[in-house]
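quick one before i forget lol
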Amino acid sequence: MLDLAPILAGATPTDTFRNSLNLAQAVEKLGYTRYWLSEHHNMASVASSSPVVLIGYIAGGTTTLRVGSGGIMLPNHAPLVVAEQIGTLASLYPGRIDLGLGRAPGSDQRTAQAIRGSRMGGPQDFPRDIQQLQAYFSADNSTAAVRAIPGEGLDVPIYILGSSTDSAYLAAALGLPYAFASHFAPAQLLAALEIYRSNFRPSKALASPYVMSCVNVIAADTDAHAEYLSTSLQQFMMSVVTGRPAPLPPPVDDMRPLWVPGGQQAVQQMLAYSFIGSKATIQQDLQEFLHETQADELIAVSNIYDQEARIYSYRLFAEALQGVGQPQEASEAVLS
């Protein structure tokens, strides 16, 4: 599963982090195998500006979950620093840390400039920076002038994240698993998966293509209640579309008075791959989605205002997956 660490209306980041740990402990009991955290900056609605710190917090409060980044926005960070930080986490929690990498800033351009300062480079250096990270993690780097301690020699799996076709080519060329952000950028999902699979080159890390797709999930006992809960997500996405991200609001009975001109269409397009409804409804929609995408693994994100309803949504989603009849990987809902 993916946790954006949403800040709820009327709450604080401290509340968000407590909810995240509570959620992680709950989904661990439900059989989820991964818990990924995103990187966003300068957003009043999201508290995950430091995924490395949150990964340590979640890993320290759980016992079996793989915890990782979905992802770290590599252009914001020097590869050596990422290798050292993730290496530290992988040393503290052996066999439980994943490293998902993205090329977007996770913010607006002005904020990205504030993060990077005078450091040159950016998204165009993404391929080179990934290879530099791989070198730092390699045991062969022990004779290099610059080494990642801790980090060197550790088996930290790397995943390439994308929301367009660009990263599909890169993940294929490097022979790495590919995770697509279809929870907010659905338009190019199928094209990106075709590019990735048809261009994949086997590597030491991966012998054959491995696809992960992120989807929104809002499950409840009835379709009507799930639709009601989903109005929080719709309001949240509308604030993103209008350029004024706001804390996740409580659900409403009627969205019609809240839509700005063009907002409903834009939000509906962004949320095209959303599973909203009862367990039976979601199970049917999942069957169709997995048939269409042949995804090896699903990343589930549930942005629901009420914490208990959020946990219950993940419970129903896990139960729905059990009946889909897909390979084991498909029942291991990640992140994002």
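fyi Residues 13 and 46 are 8 Å apart (CA to CA).
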